[in-house]
């Protein structure tokens, strides 16, 4: 279950970025593209499991936003969503390998206790 490793890395990243205030983090927002191989429910389950070992994060909540896959078509110069994992432009019906959204896994926002 690679989600446990991802959650531990998120905590390490936040501790390094906010060494004096990481214990005051209350909300962590992740942005995960459909191609990032991250399932929101599995991330939340892993988060809950890690919190059992890391009581300093007991008051922290994880929020995961999943972004759809979007490609850019060189032929018609348009952005188009990928439907059913078919990397074909919905405008001109030509294939495209130019993924411009959907592969990311980012900590998009962190909220601290007031």
Write a short abstract of this structure.
This protein is α+β, with helices and mostly antiparallel strands and 114 residues long. The chain has a domain at 2-67 and 101-112: hypothetical protein PF0899 fold (2-Layer Sandwich).
In words, what does this structure look like?
The chain has 114 residues and is of the alpha+beta class. It has 2 helices and 6 strands; from the N terminus they run H-E-H-E-E-E-E-E. It has a domain at 2-67 and 101-112: hypothetical protein PF0899 fold, CATH 3.30.2320. Helix content is 26%, strand content 32%. Helix 2 links the parallel strand 1 (25-33) and strand 2. Helix 1 packs across helix 2 (40-53). The mean pLDDT is 94.
Helices and strands, with pairings:
Layout: H1 2-17, E1 25-33, H2 40-53, E2 61-67, E3 70-73, E4 78-81, E5 98-101, E6 105-112
Parallel strand pairs: 1-2
Antiparallel strand pairs: 1-6, 3-4, 3-5
Radius of gyration from the alpha-carbon trace, in angstroms: 17 Å
- The averaged pLDDT comes out at 94
User: Structural class of the secondary elements?
Assistant: alpha+beta
End-to-end separation in angstroms reads 34 Å
Supply database-style keywords.
114 residues; alpha+beta; hypothetical protein PF0899 fold; 3-stranded mixed sheet; 3-stranded antiparallel sheet; 2 helices; 26% helix
